[in-house]
Amino acid sequence: MKNSTVLFAIFGLMLAGCSGTTVVLVPDATGKVGKVSVKTKAGEQLLSQSGASTFAGTVDKAPSQVQVLDSTKIQDMFGTALANEPAPPLHYSIYFKSGSAELLPDSKPLLMTMFKAIQERKSCDISVIGHSDRVGDNGTNKGISLKRAESVANVLKTIGLSGDCLDVRYYGENDPVVPTADNVAEPRNRRVEIEVR
């Protein structure tokens, strides 16, 4: 099976006289539908619209003709799996003053919004990743990005999050949102990214 673009597919094992795999293409959390190619030795089917479905019984038989299933049929077939699907990760970016671990004023309210989302999810799987712009040398910038990540992690711990739930990392200037030349001050690169799973 080969993926292209963004997709979310449901794979189900169907046991109705013979076994095989039913593949149904459904939108991702943002509503986007990608494409998936279902291939056996004997043929291939491309699924490219919401609800598109095919059945692959054996490797020596081509997948069935594409059928489009309505949402009721998809719920009947895969409702339990869909109900137990984890929520997609939440992403936040907190920004800092140049050369320091001091938050920009606009970023402070986002910390509480983020903490509420963590509480609602009951999450204990959070990445806190520090970054810097390219002003100064990379060694110094790695230190600044670590201090930024640690400062956000400390705020989260202060408001009740367990340190065991945090994966704190830092990349210095090595993973910019906006690529720049050396010694260019780019505010969007002076950040901590938080991913809540």
Automatic annotation (TrEMBL):
Ranges of residues in domain OmpA-like: 83-197
Position of the signal peptide: 1-24
UniProt keyword annotation of Membrane present: yes
Keywords, ordered alphabetically: Cell outer membrane, Membrane, Signal
Gene3D superfamilies: OmpA-like domain (3.30.1330.60)
Subcellular location: Cell outer membrane
Chief location of this protein within or outside the cell: membrane
CDD domains: OmpA_C-like
Record-level GO cellular component terms: cell outer membrane
Tree of life domain: Bacteria
Any matching Pfam family: OmpA
Record-given protein name: OmpA/MotB domain-containing protein
Originating species: Crenothrix polyspora
Phylogenetic classification of the source organism: Bacteria, Pseudomonadati, Pseudomonadota, Gammaproteobacteria, Methylococcales
